[in-house]
Description:
The chain has helices at 6-20, 34-42, 53-62, 95-110, 113-120. The two termini are 22 Å apart. The chain contains five helices and no strands. By secondary structure, it is mostly helical.
Amino acid sequence: xxxxxxxLDLLKKHQAAxxxxxxxxxxVQTHLKGSDAQLALRSGKVxxxxxxxxxxxxxxxxxxxxKAFDLVEDPAAPxxxxxxxxxxxxxxxxxxxxxxxxxxxxxxxxxxTVTKIYDKYGVASIAVKQATENAAVD
Length: 138
């Protein structure tokens, strides 16, 4: 598990729930880089690596030509478990750049390019329909 990620927070919540239910505690290892966490998985030091769905899909599809890892998806969470929104930070002093990036992303969504990219990396079930500016996040 890469340190300082949303997925680490998710695992900590699951740890607490398992412990409270008397099922023991999930052992979590943290690593500074995702590649270090992947090495721990390859070497058998951990049994799973929790990533964002796009990252997990890419790793499963590309590591050893798709032969090293499987992607486990939760059908109840097509965007990924406890998925966090992603975005591009742009200085508020450049509103024209913000608008240009939003328009470009929307064009990629509209013409199907985003879907092709998701297919390429094994995460086609993520459905992005609209690129927004200054979308509210939790």
